[in-house]
Specification:
Length: 93
């Protein structure tokens, strides 16, 4: 499970990354990607996933996750659905 505390992203009490505005970073400070308008992009600007209704879909349709499950796995903080989905996609289990 991932816990959001302020801008920090933690798992098991350990900081695994952070977010700033609409960008997600790993613990080493490497930008992993960003989200905007319910779409998630990798660090190179390629769209890799999108949120539609109650599901997150990868760009090529090979993976689908329920928003409800994502919210159970990424808790804490006051975040938009697309922010939680981006954190789940980049830093989830």
């Amino acid at each position: 499970m991932i816990l959001i505390e302020d801008n920090d992203i933690r798992r098991g009490g350990e900081k695994i990354g952070w977010y700033e505005n609409n960008r997600i970073y790993n613990r080493h400070g490497d930008k992993l990607g960003y989200f905007i308008d319910e779409k998630i992009y990798d660090v190179h600007g390629r769209k890799i996933a999108y949120l539609e209704g109650e599901y997150l879909y990868t760009e090529y349709g090979d993976r689908k996750a329920r928003l409800e499950e994502i919210c159970k796995n990424v808790s804490g903080g006051i975040l938009s659905d697309d922010a939680r989905c981006a954190i789940y996609l980049f830093l989830g289990d």
